[in-house]
From TrEMBL:
<dbReference type="Pfam" id="PF02777">
    <property type="entry name" value="Sod_Fe_C"/>
</dbReference>
<protein>
    <recommendedName>
        <fullName>superoxide dismutase</fullName>
        <ecNumber>1.15.1.1</ecNumber>
    </recommendedName>
</protein>
<feature type="binding site">
    <location>
        <position position="163"/>
    </location>
    <ligand>
        <name>Mn(2+)</name>
    </ligand>
</feature>
<feature type="binding site">
    <location>
        <position position="159"/>
    </location>
    <ligand>
        <name>Mn(2+)</name>
    </ligand>
</feature>
<feature type="binding site">
    <location>
        <position position="27"/>
    </location>
    <ligand>
        <name>Mn(2+)</name>
    </ligand>
</feature>
<keyword id="KW-0560">Oxidoreductase</keyword>
<dbReference type="InterPro" id="IPR019832">
    <property type="entry name" value="Mn/Fe_SOD_C"/>
</dbReference>
<keyword id="KW-0479">Metal-binding</keyword>
<dbReference type="InterPro" id="IPR001189">
    <property type="entry name" value="Mn/Fe_SOD"/>
</dbReference>
<dbReference type="GO" id="GO:0046872">
    <property type="term" value="F:metal ion binding"/>
</dbReference>
<dbReference type="InterPro" id="IPR050265">
    <property type="entry name" value="Fe/Mn_Superoxide_Dismutase"/>
</dbReference>
<dbReference type="InterPro" id="IPR036314">
    <property type="entry name" value="SOD_C_sf"/>
</dbReference>
<comment type="similarity">
    <text>Belongs to the iron/manganese superoxide dismutase family.</text>
</comment>
<dbReference type="InterPro" id="IPR036324">
    <property type="entry name" value="Mn/Fe_SOD_N_sf"/>
</dbReference>
<dbReference type="GO" id="GO:0004784">
    <property type="term" value="F:superoxide dismutase activity"/>
</dbReference>
<feature type="binding site">
    <location>
        <position position="77"/>
    </location>
    <ligand>
        <name>Mn(2+)</name>
    </ligand>
</feature>
<dbReference type="InterPro" id="IPR019833">
    <property type="entry name" value="Mn/Fe_SOD_BS"/>
</dbReference>
């Protein structure tokens, strides 16, 4: 079992609003590191001794504790790089309808997403919950292995760790958040939202 890092070079050259090639390439390298570590963990787990698992310390136990960090670090970055863009796309009528039904209005979602991102030392993901049949902004903490809402489906992922913006924005995190939110790739997000739950068949 092994994963290959995906290429997101399509974002270079100004195709991710407000993000320079320098910033993006550094972030790609960090993402590739998660994929490498995920593969390393899976390789080690494949041959790990399962005879003495232990909460305090055991090689197998520690690999299992670190697996979600590398796994979510890989997947969240892929979702993020897929769903950022240059601002040339628009939410579909179906996406708008679901966002409005969940947050009251599109602007209310944006305001909540901004507030969550500025609260986060980590990620904010827009998730769909099948039980409530609505979207939530979910603040994912620490090493992106803590706080992810159970049994939801991620529609939008936005990285608010310093490494995602510091080369371009230094401490002006709000400017990064504004640019990334206004530059989202709605073609990708519309397709994700079109797949979910009872809303999938609605126009
Ligand atoms: Fe990141």
């Amino acid at each position: 079992m092994s994963r290959e890092p995906k290429s997101f070079d399509n974002l270079l050259g100004g195709n991710a609003k407000g993000l320079s090639d320098l910033q993006l390439k550094a972030h790609f390298t960090l993402y590739q590191g998660y994929v490498k570590k995920l593969n390393e963990i899976w390789e080690q787990l494949g041959k790990a001794d399962r005879s003495a698992p232990n909460y305090s310390y055991n090689a197998y136990s520690e690999l299992k504790r670190r697996e979600p960090v590398a796994f979510n670090g890989t997947v969240l970055h892929e979702l993020y790089f897929e769903n950022i863009g240059n601002g040339s796309t628009q939410p579909s009528a179906q996406s708008k309808k679901l966002i409005e039904a969940s947050f009251g209005s599109f602007d209310a979602w944006l305001a909540d997403a901004k507030a969550s991102l500025l609260s986060a030392h980590g990620w904010t993901v827009l998730v769909y919950d099948y039980q409530e049949q609505k979207l939530f902004n979910n603040l994912v903490r620490t090493e992106h292995d803590v706080g992810l809402f159970a049994n939801t489906h991620i529609m939008v992922a936005i990285d608010a760790w310093e490494h995602a913006y510091f080369a371009d924005y230094q401490t002006k995190k709000a400017d990064y958040v504004a640019n990334v939110l206004s530059g989202l790739n709605w073609d990708v997000i519309n397709a994700r939202l079109a797949q979910i739950g009872p809303h999938a068949q609605q126009g």
